[in-house]
């Protein structure tokens, strides 16, 4: 048997398929979809094994089973869409919410370093006072959809303003504050809860909401725990905590500058 020549298009096709498979697996890792995919894969492998064994024991038979499989096979795509509807929705929303003209934090102008410093100062003060806080900083993916049910604001970023918003008896202390560039553009916002299945049971509502938003967008979300006073930062579906007080500003600048967080340190809330 003569093998056909290997062309450049074949190599390109292999490369594209490899990248696509890797991207899909990476996207659904640590989510409900990862276990569904594993279960679906095990079911397919077991089905092929059973069919092979039956074909070996009864060659030429199994007409009824093959007929049933021929009816079910065309609907596998629909089954996959139903099982992974949340993951598919998240993937589509990442494309639809992207605003390419916002390249980095501070894209709206002004002194971004000063804003980061004020956010860090306010978080350190609130941590010392055990004041809970949830602050999301917009990057390329627009956070506007998550502000629809919150309170619209147009306030410059300042440590005093952030501490005032999250003051326990203040009317807007519940929910998240959304920041774009040098502006606080919404408060009292409800964020989506994480769909991950391996989240620590010690994580409260703020941490789960921060994870949920970080799974759906590229925002950098700061969490201040009112129970422990710890400061955490959620990026790309990972919570980095505890962040030492003298490292908050540096870590914020690090995450805001990088498109993807590479380290995977996590920790449970005490």
Based on secondary structure, the structural category is alpha+beta
Task: Give a quick account of the main beta sheet: strands, pairing sense, barrel closure.
Answer: 7 strands, mixed
Specify the overall morphology. elongated
The Cα radius of gyration reads: 24 Å
CATH class of the largest domain: Alpha Beta
Describe this structure in words.
With 270 residues, the protein is α+β, with helices and mostly antiparallel strands. The chain folds into 2 domains: 8-96, no CATH class; 112-257, 3-Layer(aba) Sandwich (YojJ-like (1). The chain has helices at 8-28, 32-57, 63-72, 76-83, 85-96, 112-128, 159-165, 205-216, 248-257; strands spanning 133-137, 151-156, 176-180, 183-189, 220-224, 231-235, 238-240. The protein has a 7-stranded mixed sheet, with helices on both faces. Helix 6 crosses helix 7 (159-165) and helix 6 crosses helix 9 (248-257). It is elongated.
Distinctive features:
270 residues, alpha+beta, YojJ-like (1, seven-stranded mixed beta sheet, 9 helices, 7 strands, 46% helix, 13% strand
Break the fold down into its secondary structure elements and pairings.
Blueprint: H1 8-28, H2 32-57, H3 63-72, H4 76-83, H5 85-96, H6 112-128, E1 133-137, E2 151-156, H7 159-165, E3 176-180, E4 183-189, H8 205-216, E5 220-224, E6 231-235, E7 238-240, H9 248-257
Parallel strand pairs: 1-3
Antiparallel strand pairs: 1-5, 2-4, 3-4, 5-6, 6-7
Helix pairs in contact: 6-7, 6-9
């Amino acid at each position: 048997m003569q093998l056909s020549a290997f062309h450049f298009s074949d190599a390109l096709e292999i490369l594209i398929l490899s990248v696509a498979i890797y991207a899909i697996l990476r996207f659904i890792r640590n989510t409900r979809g990862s276990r569904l995919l594993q279960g679906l894969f095990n079911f397919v492998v077991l089905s092929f094994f059973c069919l092979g064994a039956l074909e070996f024991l009864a060659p030429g038979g199994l007409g009824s089973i093959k007929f049933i499989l021929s009816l079910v096979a065309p609907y596998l795509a629909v089954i996959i869409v139903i099982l992974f509807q949340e993951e598919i929705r998240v993937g589509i929303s990442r494309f639809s919410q992207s605003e390419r003209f916002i390249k980095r934090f501070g894209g709206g102008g002004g002194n971004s370093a000063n804003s980061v410093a004020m956010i860090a100062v306010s978080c350190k003060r609130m941590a010392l006072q055990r004041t809970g806080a949830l602050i999301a900083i917009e990057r390329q993916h627009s956070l506007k959809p998550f502000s629809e049910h919150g309170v619209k604001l147009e306030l410059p970023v300042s440590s005093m303003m952030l501490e005032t918003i999250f003051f326990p008896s203040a009317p807007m202390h519940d929910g998240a504050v959304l920041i774009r560039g040098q502006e606080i553009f919404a408060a009292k916002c409800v964020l989506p809860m994480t769909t991950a299945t391996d989240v620590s049971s010690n994580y409260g509502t703020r941490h789960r909401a921060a994870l949920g938003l970080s799974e759906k967008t590229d925002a950098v979300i700061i969490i201040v725990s009112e129970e422990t006073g710890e400061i955490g930062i959620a990026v790309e579906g990972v919570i980095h905590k505890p962040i030492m007080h003298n490292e908050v500003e540096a870590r914020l600048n690090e995450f805001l500058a990088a498109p993807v967080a590479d380290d995977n340190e996590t920790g449970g809330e005490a």
